[in-house]
Amino acid sequence: MAERSIDRAPSTSSSVTEAEAYDENEKHGTLSETEGGFVKLKSPEDLEFGDGDNDDERAEMLPAEHEKPAQPTSEASVRSSFIWMVVNTLATIGIVFTNKAIFSDPTLKLAQLTFAAFHFFITWLTLFTLSRPRFAMFTPRRAAIKEIIPLAVAMSLNVILPNLSLAFSTVTFYQVARILLTPMVALMNYVLYKSTLPRNAIYALIPACIGVAMVSYYDSLPSADASVKTTSSLGVIFAFSGIFASSLYTVWISSYHKKLQMNSMQLLFNQAPLASFMLLYVIPFVDTFPVWTEVPINRWVMIMMSGMFACIINMSQFFIIAQTGPVSSTVVGHVKTCSIVALGWLTSGRAVGDKSVIGVFVAVGGIILYSIVMLKHKAQQSKS
User: Fold this and answer.
1) What are phi and psi of 196, to 5 degrees?
2) Is residue 176 situated within a structural domain?
């Protein structure tokens, strides 16, 4: 593949809310991939996802109206940027583990569409609040429903399939598998738009893919120790289906930004309520509901916490996009990935010498190397 590249940051956040999936793309002045997020783009390097991963310059360029990110120019702005990055990181980690706890309840595990509709509503409510004159963080723009429907369907799959993966997988496998968003989006952009990556970036993605394959194999092996958490076959299937759906959504987002001349906030403001409304027609036929009066109070608290984390992620993403550059964004993305993977490992009951840990290091190391290559490539391009 030639060297006319488009990159995107790896998606490292829960795919529940995709504003994050846009962040890297917007940050780099392009959309591809992210989250975020979710949301996406052209070539890999967004995030989050990326999240965010997600998240990028793939095949989608931000609309002309999209403002260039303002770099911090004072001690106060630097402090503000750091605080928002910490808040975003903690909220992303919080939403993944909170959702995992919610899905660990058998009575809630199969109510995924209802849960997604709830998050879409929370996302819309957050964006509606941020668009009010009191905050004026972005100006809403309307798009015809018929134009948004395909993207809303993709957005729903982009959230539901990864959440099902989280429900039937360990947190470690769930997060490591999301690393495949980067090579998958790159492949889709190459096939659809002939967008290419630098050769060294492609080489870096090879160990990332190998590492994910190793984790997929070892993490799904049955364990004689009941205290060791493993990933089921359904978890693996949902994970890879979710990767495909999220990647397709990422690529579509890119074209929709150009087609509708909207930035990520404006586009998500149109998508979220439509996706939530459409799910209402499917929920009665797909979801298995618990007896609501028998759901423990602590589960209701977790559901509210999940919605709160989604709000915080969307809000903090706005400030991160505006105040930080690609290096900061990439570092934050990797911090989130490594933190979630490490905490997931600690709670999995696995020994330090478990073979899947090798795959974790190979996958994470590969995606970090890829990010370094892409940042250097962008720096060289900006100088020439």
Assistant:
1) -125, 165
2) yes
Contact 253, 22 (CB under 8 A): yes
With H, G, I as helix, E, B as strand and everything else as coil, classify residue 252: helix
273 in any annotated domain: yes
Task: Read off the pLDDT of residues 97-128 as tens digits, 9 standing for 90 and up.
Answer: 999 999 998 888 889 999 999 999 999 999 99
What distance in Å separates the CA atoms of residue 50 and residue 12, rounded to the nearest whole number?
5
Residue 300 lies in a domain: yes
Count of H helices and E strands in the chain? 13, 2
Where b means 16+ CB within 10 Å and e means fewer, 92-106 reads bbbbbbbbbebbebe
The boundaries of the domain holding residue 87 are: 76-198+230-324
Task: Tell me if residue 347 falls in helix, strand or coil.
Answer: coil
Task: Choose among 245, 194, 199: nearest CA to 59.
Answer: 194
DSSP sequence for 16-50: T-THHHHHHHHHTTEE----------SSSB-----
Q: For 299-354, write each residue's pLDDT tens digit.
A: 999 999 999 998 898 888 777 777 777 677 778 888 898 999 989 888 887 776 67
Tell me 16's DSSP state.
T
Q: Which residues of 34-49 are buried (b: 16+ CB within 10 A; e: fewer)?
A: bbbbbbbbbbbbbbbb
Contact 336, 94 (CB under 8 A): no
Tokens, residue 274: 């439509």
Q: Is the dihedral of CA 339, 341, 347, 351 positive or negative?
A: negative
Q: Is 105 helix (H, G, I), strand (E, B) or coil?
A: coil
Q: Tokens 């890119």 map to which residue?
A: 254
Does any domain span residue 140? yes
Number of folded domains in the chain? Answer: 1
Contact between 286 and 117 (Cβ < 8 Å): no
Look up residue 135 and give its DSSP letter.
T
Burial zone of 145 (CB within 10 Å; 0-12 exposed, 13-18 middle, 19+ buried)? exposed
Count of beta carbons in the 10 Å neighbourhood of residue 51:
42
